[in-house]
């Protein structure tokens, strides 16, 4: 049964997801659902080292040590969110293009929000899902160190219902939100997991067929259209503690953000937190 509005979602149905999404019926090699784990990304990084197959999926009902970008924690209580990771082995994709997988994952989040019946969702660079001025989801993409084999793990955390616990605000005091709070008509986590995984598989296949070229695959055009950061006045908080303030002009083919400062100097950012500022500065 599909969860509606503010109703609590059903339990994750691993059997239904495997029947729908795992070969020969679907695009994935393996899919496992666990009640709880420390981190789905960490588990699949370990699995990669042990030889797990390309397109292996792990979904958890809860995480006790969920992680976001820049080693921040991701609050992942039971029964309220969707926490999943996918192990990929795109052998023909150059290592320097693996970072654009986060664009692919972000676009798949938009599909999941659409399936939930939520309108007005956008992406904040690099890959946060924003709805109604709140952050409802995020992406963590990591390279798996598996000897000479090229592998990556892409993880997403999607708040379907309010977590029910305090969640620290993000950079710029960006509050956490959930799809249910933004008027979601569908809140069944199995259904939303299926929506994200199907969208991700389609987008990732096009990306892989183009050897990870975001432009040639169509990923870049779609991401630019969905990125609410573009055209905004922003403050970029960089990993070294410095900041850049200006207008976000473009997302480049390698996924980096181009910012034009007030003095006309342009900077290309590969990492950092972007805060959307009011137009009056």
TrEMBL record:
Q: Which domain of life is it from?
A: Bacteria
Is Ligase there in the keyword field? yes
Drop me one GO molecular function for this one: biotin--[biotin carboxyl-carrier protein] ligase activity
EC number(s): the record gives: 6.3.4.15
Any single Pfam family the record assigns to this protein: BPL_C
Q: Which UniProt keywords apply?
A: ATP-binding, Biotin, Ligase, Nucleotide-binding
Matching entries from CDD domains are given as: BPL
Q: Where is the BPL/LPL catalytic domain?
A: 20-208
Q: Name one GO cellular component term.
A: cytoplasm
Q: Which InterPro entries match?
A: aa-tRNA-synth_II/BPL/LPL, Biotin_CoA_COase_ligase, BPL_C, BPL_LPL_catalytic, Transcriptional_repressor_C
Q: Which SUPFAM superfamilies match?
A: C-terminal domain of transcriptional repressors (SSF50037), Class II aaRS and biotin synthetases (SSF55681)
NCBIfam families per record: birA_ligase (TIGR00121)
Which protein is depicted? biotin--[biotin carboxyl-carrier protein] ligase
- Native organism: Actinophytocola xinjiangensis
């Amino acid at each position: 049964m599909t969860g509606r509005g503010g109703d609590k979602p059903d339990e994750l149905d691993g059997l239904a997801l495997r029947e729908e999404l795992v070969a020969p019926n679907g695009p994935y090699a393996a899919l496992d659902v666990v009640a709880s784990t420390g981190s789905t990304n960490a588990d699949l990084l370990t699995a990669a080292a042990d030889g797990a197959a390309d397109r292996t999926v792990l979904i958890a009902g809860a995480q006790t040590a969920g992680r976001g970008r820049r080693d921040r924690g991701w609050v992942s209580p039971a029964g309220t969110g969707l926490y999943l990771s996918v192990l990929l082995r795109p052998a023909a994709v150059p290592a320097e293009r693996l970072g654009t997988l986060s664009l692919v994952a972000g676009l798949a989040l938009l599909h999941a929000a659409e399936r939930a019946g939520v309108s007005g969702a956008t992406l904040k660079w690099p890959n946060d899902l924003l709805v109604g001025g709140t952050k409802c989801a995020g992406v963590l993409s990591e390279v798996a160190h598996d000897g000479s084999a090229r592998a990556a793990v892409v993880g997403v955390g999607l708040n379907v219902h309010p977590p029910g616990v305090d969640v620290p605000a993000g950079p710029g005091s960006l509050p956490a939100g959930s799809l249910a709070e933004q008027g979601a008509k569908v809140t069944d986590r199995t259904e939303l997991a299926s929506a994200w995984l199907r969208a991700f598989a389609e987008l990732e296949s096009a990306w892989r067929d183009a050897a990870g070229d975001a432009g040639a695959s169509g990923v870049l055009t779609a991401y630019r259209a969905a990125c609410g950061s573009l055209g905004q006045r922003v403050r970029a908080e960089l990993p070294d503690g410095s900041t850049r303030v200006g207008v976000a002009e473009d997302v480049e083919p390698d996924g980096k953000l181009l910012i034009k400062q007030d003095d006309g100097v342009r900077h290309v950012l590969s990492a950092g937190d972007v805060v959307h500022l009011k137009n009056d500065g």
